[in-house]
Amino acid sequence: MEAFPIPADTYKLGFIGAGKMAESVARGVVQSGVLPASRIRTSSHSNPLRRQVFESFGVRVLPKNDDVVEESDVVIFSVKPQVVKDVVLQLKPLLSKKKLLVSVAAGVKLKDLQEWAGNSRFIRVMPNTPAAVGEAASVMSLGGAATEEDGNLIANLFGSVGKIWKADEKLFDAITGLSGSGPAYIYLAIEALADGGVAAGLPRELALGLASQTVLGAASMASKTGKHPGQLKDDVASPGGTTITGIHELEKGGFRSVLMNAVVAATKRSRELS
Ligand SMILES: NC(=O)c1ccc[n+]([C@@H]2O[C@H](COP(=O)([O-])OP(=O)(O)OC[C@H]3O[C@@H](n4cnc5c(N)ncnc54)[C@H](OP(=O)(O)O)[C@@H]3O)[C@@H](O)[C@H]2O)c1
């Protein structure tokens, strides 16, 4: 297979679809210094406000999708899943093997993307909404002609908006059920913790602040100390204390199995939808 390395110091990045996810990734890439804004381009579709958003941090907004592809070495398809087929097919004549193609469209398989593009130098990435605050949990899977260097380049780009792992594409429905849908499960947990605080006499604003910061702090402890969460739990549950009393109530309510069931049910739904 002929190799067309992407020049690390000079490559240009294009987004097809100037929406929320494209904005999060573009901002993260610029803010972290991975690429200057002058090497990023997109085009605005029907909503003129999106042009202003991208131009406000220095990204060039070109008239058409074709211009974006022609001027980019790495092209990220960030349109909604239901339009990705049409968009890729329209651009097919321009999608040469010299370009590295990426899709973030939820539920759209590499096999289809590669077929529509006529190019298997494709990488599928599943980010999640905390990309907007630089804390995404993303997973990527490499298509047939994507090289290890291509994977490293995409890990570097998406690493600027959070963490990224590599996984077999057959795991993507389970990934959707866990990290794709997971932020919403945790929003519910934060709201419920705050409600508990209010029920126990705290003012609403204080309760919400404490609940979100507690979730953030616990997540940081789990990811930064490298300790197993069971160990972290044991470390804070003293005999006959308040924490073990609260944990006992959670266990009575089936807290763990409810969370497990949510991930399994969302995985099943993702499989049905794709
Ligand atoms: N947001 C997330 O956290 C998240 C997480 C995981 C995966 N994703 C994936 O990311 C993709 C984008 O999601 P999003 O949340 O960023 O959606 P979004 O904000 O609606 O962005 C989609 C963009 O695509 C544009 N567009 C539509 N048709 C187009 C065309 N023919 N040519 C060029 N642009 C076109 C839209 O422009 P107009 O509005 O002007 O039509 C819009 O700006 C989706 O496939 C989604 O599955 C998103």
UniProtKB/TrEMBL annotation:
Protein name: Pyrroline-5-carboxylate reductase
Example GO molecular function: pyrroline-5-carboxylate reductase activity
Domain Pyrroline-5-carboxylate reductase catalytic N-terminal stretches: 12-107
Gene3D superfamilies (alphabetical): NAD(P)-binding Rossmann-like Domain (3.40.50.720), ProC C-terminal domain-like (1.10.3730.10)
Top enzyme category: oxidoreductase
PANTHER family associated with the record: PYRROLINE-5-CARBOXYLATE REDUCTASE, PYRROLINE-5-CARBOXYLATE REDUCTASE 3
NCBIfam families: proC
Keywords, ordered alphabetically: Amino-acid biosynthesis, Cytoplasm, NADP, Oxidoreductase, Proline biosynthesis
Family classification: Belongs to the pyrroline-5-carboxylate reductase family.
Domain Pyrroline-5-carboxylate reductase dimerisation: start-end pairs: 169-273
